[in-house]
Amino acid sequence: MRTVFTGGRIFDGTGAPVAEADVAIEDGLIAEVGAGLDGDEQVDVTGSTLLPGLFDTHVHVMFGHLDMWKHLQTPFSYMFYDAIKNLDATIRVGITTVRDAGGADLGVKRAVEEGIVRGPRLQISLTMLSQTGGHGDGWMPSGFDLGMVYPGMPSQIVDGVEDARRKVRELIRNGADVIKIATSGGVLSPTDSPDQRGFAFDEIQMMCEEARAAGLHVMSHAQAAIGIKNAVRAGVRSIEHGIYIDDEALELMLEHGTYLVPTLVAPLGVLRAADAGVPIPEHVLAKAVDVVETHRDSIRRAAAAGVKIAMGTDAGVVPHGTNLEELQLMADLGMSPTDVLVATTKTAAELMGLDGELGTLEPGKRADLVLVAGDALDFTDLPSRIERVYKDGELVVEAAAEPAPVPA
Length: 408
Fold this sequence. Notes:
By secondary structure, the protein is of the alpha/beta class. Helix content is about 30%, strand content about 20%. It has helices at about 70, 80-90, 105-115, 160-175, 200-215, 225-235, 245-255, 265-275, 280-305, 325-330, 335-345, 345-350; strands at about 1-5, 10, 20, 20-25, 30-35, 40-45, 50, 55-60, 95-100, 120-125, 130, 180, 215-220, 240, 260, 310, 370-375, 385-390, 395-400.
């Protein structure tokens, strides 16, 4: 069956202007893009714009809120059922591919692949590797440890070069598609701060070396300038957050071709949760307040310098299904709407190593399509204008047929 979407406009993901064109799909792939195409079935999309399936390269589908007390009162298995809702909310807004930055295991990925639950395809990191007392250490001042270890989910704590080698191999054995590490402190962690260094350089270098040996990339939670620079010099693929990027870090990222995943909405999510009554610890709230403007300035300078930017939100810190707010935040910092959509399609696909099959509307690529009513370059109300979502040529979301749930 060859299906042709006709009468509308397309944004093909390459950075070319939105233009009138038809798109033909067949056997789950894009067969042709052009004018006056024929097919077995015609879908009239007059007044709408077709986009490639969107990406979010930094999500946590296993987590839906920041209320630690609520987490402590929730049965262990509940998070897997909650992930079903989170995955569904994500694909409803046109995001057909995500990189899970910690929490999802191989079972979650396979459940989506096999159609047991509806959601975007996933690359998984399993957990974020952290030094003792680092950003990923679940130890709390009470002595309680929030670290989640179970079959298929190894401990995240790493200290020393040989321990780093062994732990990366363990993650790979458990199905990781990407290795995530913490090369700086962070906002939500209780015993460090965003401007502090994480892993030592030799530890980072070893983790990158072991990942490369398995054909995998490394993504680095990196907020402090020293943590960003150590990570880039060691060979990580992407810097996550990048709050305290300095000029030297920008030069290094350009030299090494390192990607930046801004997650601009994440600190705002912490502040909004506190405003909504979630009991955020005072020291965490203070860190979130402190980083907002610095974060914006760093991403603004990185974009102006030409650093490769891929869209990512840290969803889980913000409600799943609100991911597209990040697009307007990126545009507010001076990125053109076209550049923002490229960051959410083509560049994100490149970051994840999927540019040969996703990210643009080109013949031979997988038929992930998002149909948007009206102007796709207007982000102010974009989620409400998503009409249909296709994944591998299959209609998975039709807005008129099912009302979207209100995010929790």
